[in-house]
Design a protein that fits this description.
Layout: H1 7-17, E1 21-32, E2 37-47, H2 54-68
Antiparallel strand pairs: 1-2
C-alpha cells in the first residue's frame, strides 16, 4: 500500500513489546506501474529472541498489516 502515517511506529512498537531488536530499518517509495501509484517499502533486519514463537509473531504482524492495508514478508536471515 502507499505511505501512511503510523506504519513504522506500529510495526516497531509490536517488535518492542516482544523484546525483538531492530538491527537495521530503511524505508523507500517505489513506483508500482501496474497500479499507477507508489508503494511504501519498509525493510528491516531484526533479532528475534529464542523464546518468541515465530508463528505468533507472524500472526501479530498479519493483524497489524491488515489494519494498515499492507502486506508483509517474514524471511529467515542468514546466519
Amino acid at each position: 500500500s502507499g505511505d501512511q502515517p503510523g506504519i513504522v511506529h506500529k510495526v516497531s512498537e509490536l517488535l518492542r513489546r516482544r523484546g525483538i531488536n531492530i538491527e537495521s530499518l530503511s524505508t523507500r517509495l517505489e513506483g508500482a506501474p501496474f497500479a499507477g501509484t507508489n508503494l511504501f517499502i519498509l525493510d528491516l533486519v531484526m533479532t528475534v529472541p529464542a523464546d518468541v514463537p515465530l508463528f505468533a509473531l507472524r500472526d501479530e504482524l498479519a493483524r497489524v498489516c491488515q489494519q494498515l492495508n499492507c502486506d508483509f514478508d517474514l524471511e529467515p536471515g542468514r546466519a
